[in-house]
From TrEMBL:
It is an enzyme of class 2 (transferase). It comes from the Bacteria. One of its GO terms (molecular function) is metal ion binding. Its EC number is 2.8.4.3. Its cofactor is [4Fe-4S] cluster. The keyword Transferase applies. Residues 2-115 form the MTTase N-terminal domain. This is tRNA-2-methylthio-N(6)-dimethylallyladenosine synthase. It comes from Candidatus Falkowbacteria bacterium GW2011_GWA2_41_14. GO terms for cellular component: cytosol. InterPro entries: Elp3/MiaA/NifB-like_rSAM, Methylthiotransferase, Methylthiotransferase_N, Methylthiotransferase_N_sf, rSAM, rSAM_horseshoe, rSAM_sf, TRAM_dom. Residues 132-382 form the Radical SAM core domain.
Length: 446
């Protein structure tokens, strides 16, 4: 039986695409191997969002080809359609696979006979039944692509315009996961809160069919599981959605809300379509609604932690002055993020910003990144210290050594804890008393 090995670089959408690709390969008669140097097919699922992610493949692919000469190399993901990437890697790559073509991938170009069902008609690749890596937590893509065209971003070009799955299909996937014992479903799309069911929703989704309605309907599925979702564009985070999150006891109080810049002029040049004041007002609204003592929250919880807010921000966008960057600094202090992914701007071919002069020096970008990172560490630590002495519900992920476990709180905090009990198993919920806090990790005891 021929073997395959998938290397995934990038975001949750790529991880989820790889799970669908794995399922498609197994359907065609391939078997998974953990050894990239022994596999017959090596698939690299690429990310083109930052130069650093792109650079990884330029070392990786020639290295695999050198060590594993018989391997057929397939390149998929964000970079699979970029002409300059194709030119640079053409002597190493055997086939280029745009993500949406996963379903109808022509195995014959690799001289492999395809097995199983060949007739997929017009089915979308998101309808493939995925092969999940975890048996308790699963990404469920609700759509693909983006219509927002932020000037620095490749996603609308690499993935295309927004396409959403029907609510019926998503609900069926979540019901199946819950039935198989999954404890966490993570609804993903580039912009979950612009979701709209493409076909008129039918019962039980008798409401309008937007993301708030979808969330409430998933919350009504019987079972003990958590719902997370990401990411949310601030301009589309409606009052209706905030109220829905606050009213759903399975929806985790963790909001991923990319800000990208703290200065109005930079935000405008990025085409983000909100101001710094809009963002701050939105965070206040989220905190007010989700921290209400009356809002129902996760069964079995003893202490209700405050909603955690995660963001993405770019430093050194073309012509970002020190003064403009200082507005990002102020925003970081004002919001007090729990987590932030801080990136140094890198021009992405094909985007509108690629034509702008990348005139903030690499050293200055790093300095700005470090400055924000320092503030993030302070605010994250202050937020985490509020957990000390409290008991929280934790989803166990894995054992690190005998009696030591790693898991996540509903607010998405990593937690290491000791537990000797026989009830301990990856995928179980346990109550953990928090005894210590660092910037990005809690410590505790079952
Ligand atoms: S919202 Fe902007 S940053 Fe996010 S995927 Fe769409 S274009 Fe890219």
């Amino acid at each position: 039986m021929p073997t395959y090995h998938i290397i995934t670089i990038g975001c949750q959408m790529n991880i989820s695409d790889s799970e669908r690709l794995a399922s498609r390969l197994e359907q065609a008669g391939f078997k998974k191997t953990d050894n990239k140097y022994g596999a017959d097919l090596v698939i690299i699922n690429t990310c083109g969002v930052r130069q650093s992610a792109e650079n990884r493949i330029y070392g990786l692919i020639p290295g695999i080809k050198k060590e594993n000469r018989k391997a057929k190399i397939i390149l998929t993901g964000c970079l699979s359609e970029r002409k300059d990437v194709r030119r640079r890697l053409k002597k190493y790559v055997d086939a280029w696979l745009p993500v949406k073509e996963i379903l109808n991938f022509k195995f014959k170009i690799l001289n492999y006979q395809r097995r199983g069902n060949d007739n997929f008609g017009n089915q979308d690749y998101l309808s493939i039944q995925p092969k999940h890596d975890s048996n308790f937590s699963a990404y469920v893509p609700i759509g693909n692509g983006c219509d927002n065209f932020c000037v620095y971003c490749v996603v609308p070009y690499a993935r295309g315009r927004e396409v959403y799955r029907s609510a019926q299909e998503i609900l069926a996937e979540v019901r199946g996961l819950v039935k198989r014992g999954y404890k966490e479903v993570v609804l993903i799309a580039q912009n979950v809160n612009s979701y709209k069911s493409p076909i008129p929703p039918s019962p039980p989704l008798s409401r309008g069919g937007d993301f708030a309605d979808l969330l409430k309907t998933i919350n009504d599925i019987p079972g003990d599981f958590w719902i997370r979702f990401l990411s949310s564009h601030p301009k589309d985070m409606s009052d209706k959605l905030i109220k829905a999150v606050a009213s759903c006891e399975k929806a985790c109080p963790q909001i991923y809300l990319p800000v990208q810049a703290g200065d109005n002029l930079v935000l405008k040049r990025m085409n983000r379509q909100y101001t710094r004041a809009d963002y701050i007002k939105l965070v206040k609204k989220i905190r007010k609604q989700l921290n209400l003592p009356s809002s129902p929250f996760i069964k079995g919880v003893i202490w209700k932690p405050p909603v955690s807010i995660t963001t993405d921000i770019i430093v050194g966008f073309p012509s970002e002055t020190r003064k403009q960057f200082n507005n990002s600094v102020k925003l970081f202090r004002q919001v007090g993020f729990d987590m932030a992914y801080i990136s140094e701007y890198s021009p992405r071919p094909g985007t509108a910003a690629f034509k702008l002069v990348d005139n903030v020096s690499p050293a200055e970008k790093t300095r700005r990144k470090n400055q924000l990172d320092k503030i993030l560490r302070q605010t994250a630590l202050a937020n985490n210290k509020k957990y000390i002495g409290k008991t929280v519900r934790v989803l166990m992920e894995n054992q690190t050594k005998v009696g030591k476990w790693f898991g996540k709180t509903a607010t998405g905090k990593d937690i290491r804890f000791s537990a000797k009990s026989s009830i301990c198993r990856a995928g179980n919920f346990v109550k953990v008393k928090v005894t210590g806090a660092k910037e990005f990790c809690l410590a505790g005891k079952v």
